[in-house]
Amino acid sequence: MTNYLKLIRWPNLLMIAIFQYALRYLLVAPILDYQEKGLIISHLDFFLLVLSTVCIAAGGYAVNDIEDVAIDSINKPSRVIVGTKIKEDTANNFYTAITFVGVAIGFYLSFVKDIRLIGFIQIFSAGFLYFYATTYKCIPLLGNVIIGLLTGMTALMVIIAEPAAMEDAAVLTFTGSYMVFAFSMTILRELIKDLEDQKGDSTCGCKTLPVMIGSVPVKILAGLLSLLIDTTLIWIQISTKQWQAMLSFTYVTALVTVPLLILTFLIFKATEMKEFARCALLSKMIMFTGIISIIIFYFSSKQ
User: pLDDT tens digits, residue range 209-250?
Assistant: First the structure.
């Protein structure tokens, strides 16, 4: 069981579930309740939506590991699971089953519960994740953008499920902000991971951006993107006078904007694989703290 949990990156799946639940119950629901609209889909149906999303994402991680055995054997030999701890045929069957469950739940919600588009979004997401693992990840920038878009899509599905949310400017503004943050941070982390995995990618003929143009230009690109994200967040803090809500201001400053400045410095300074690995881990932590800021904003608004 432990090996399967590692294969599907269970901490990432937990982050997706927390993000979707926090978005629905701590952002969308309070706004709609204030306007006396309320939520429509049941708690059970929303649980199924989250479960569907988690299954699709889990399948994506599994097929990525299946396709990356040769590359990971060079970059991270101690972390290779497929072929060492789980047979490749078993991993493929597991990927097929869990992806099927995710898509089936999506179509159940679409055609039985009338939550439109969810089934189609899930089957397209599963398809993109498969082709990412087999083809797109080795095309400069394309793979990075696809993963970024799919990450942002996890937020979009929450409001698609609620017609009133899709028509509410406040919900769209706040949700859109989190989608842009998730998209940008995912692109940043993907660029850093490409830098980390450059040796294996190059050896196996995977033409990622660092392989095509070199690590230095990609380092500059990643560093500038990190700085752009941070500058934008600081501008939002200033323009909204966020310090008037001290809890959220302290949280965002201490756990998002300052770490992003540190990350920018570390990216420009990094030269070795282990240093890029630290940058990738830090970017993942920043993304998590940024996403769960929904919880902090909710309690801050109650003060």
Answer: 998 999 999 999 999 999 999 999 999 999 988 888 889 999
pTM check: above 0.90: yes
Contact 234, 257 (CB under 8 A): yes
The amino acid at residue 176 is G
Angstrom distance (rounded) from CA 79 to CA 7: 10
